[in-house]
Amino acid sequence: MLLPILPKSGTHSCRGLLSRFAFSVSRLVPRGKEAHTLAAQLAAGPTKAFGAGKRLMHAGWNETLESQIEQELRSIGVMSRIEDAREAIAAFAAKRALHFKGR
User: In terms of C-beta density within 10 A (0-12 exposed, 13-18 middle, 19 or more buried), how is residue 23 classed?
Assistant: First the structure.
C-alpha cells in the first residue's frame, strides 16, 4: 500500500518503483518529468494512509515487536474509519476508479 505506483504488467513487476529513479550519490532522485508525474500520483492517493504508514515505519526502528503490532492494529482501525477508506470500498464494489480526497 505504501508503493501503489508499481507497474502492473508481468514483465515490469520485478523492476518496481525503484527502477523509475536514477541513483545520486546520497539519495535516489526522480528523473525530470517523472518526478512531477509521481508527485501527482501520490497526491491523488490516500495521503492519510501514506502518512500513517510512514509514521509506522519510522516508529518500527525503536519499538518492540509487540508494541509495533499494537500501533499497526490501532492505525488500521483509525484508517478504516476515514473517508478515503469508505471511498476505496465503494469504488471497489462499484468497479469504478478511486477518487481520494485526503480525508
Answer: exposed
Domain count, the chain: 2
Largest interatomic CA distance in the chain? 46
Query: Same domain, yes or no, for 51 and 66?
Result: yes
Q: Check which CATH number belongs to the domain holding 69 and give it.
A: 1.10.12.10
Going from the first residue of the chain to its last (103 residues), give the mean pLDDT of each consecutive group of 10, the final group possibly shorter.
49 49 51 78 87 90 93 93 92 92 83
Asked if residue 17 lies in contact with residue 8, where contact means CB atoms within 8 angstroms, the answer is no
Task: Tell me how far CA of residue 101 lies from CA of 3, 11, 26, 84, 88, in angstroms.
Answer: 18, 32, 33, 7, 11
